[in-house]
Design brief:
single chain, about 30% helix, Rossmann fold, 12 strands, Hypothetical Protein Yjia, Chain: A,domain 2
Amino acid sequence: MRKIPTTVITGFLGAGKTTLVRHLLANAGGRRIALVINEFGDLGVDGELLAGCGIAGCREDDIIELANGCLCCTVADEFLPTMQALLDRSEPPDHIVIETSGLALPKPLVKAFHWPEIRSRVTVDGVVAVVDSPAAATGRFASTPEEMARPDHDNPLEEVFEDQLAAADMVLLNKSDLMDTAALARFTTAITARLRPGVKALTTRMGAVDPLVLLGLAAAAEDDLDARPSCHDQEDGHDHDDFESFALLLPAIADPAALEARLIQAIAGHDILRLKGFLAVEGKPTRHVVQAVGARLERYFDRPWRPDEERSSRLVVIGRKGLDRAAIEAVVRG
């Protein structure tokens, strides 16, 4: 029996995973692709963006969203039943793409492909790590010498980033257009030196890469786990106690530009790693998307509100443990 290939797309918060998935869908060439989207937090934004993408052949029932958790922690409860349901369809997909949470460790998920329920029917075609190049190049994940000298030193951001690189069969250095040529060349050299032998790093803009490059790696990653070291290999389990998220529900927005200024202020004043969601703008029939990574924020209208949808403004805030929710909400509301 032919095993259905599965591509695991990993990468830190805001690296561009959903944009890459959308590009893969738009250029699928008739291939039936099923998507499993996992988000950290109880407000699913990425799955909503993909479900409303308007791409021919992208059916809503081919998009399965697992929110409020992390697949590397909920393998038995969520991931395996989801995979079994996909495999048991009368018309199974040609390829499965899993977009993990930006805080997920890919290795426990790859290991789950050994479970008896699915191991004879599906294989990990490849693990693709998406990197926010300008953020990583400016040291977003690195520890300072002073931090490393402390006996209690712990950098969960760096550990997640290292695990994602170590598990990868291909690395996409995304947002390369935001770096000058010399800086990008130095960063590419530095990242390549950290990868396993044979793993390639490609520079990309907006996740634009030929699906033939990513789908069909035939890595069988589940049979190659020992070559993919993890910072958590010696641990019994893995949790995300270092991070937290919460949702903000806002009324319809009269002035999106003024809200943007308040969001940037909130991000600058608190340890917010990622902010994203949808806005209802007064007098506009179209949903407004907000995406922020660090200090970089973008917003745009994506599609008309559906008649059965509640027109509300919803944002999810993700950051290091200890976020001052009340203070952040006060700034955002103005």
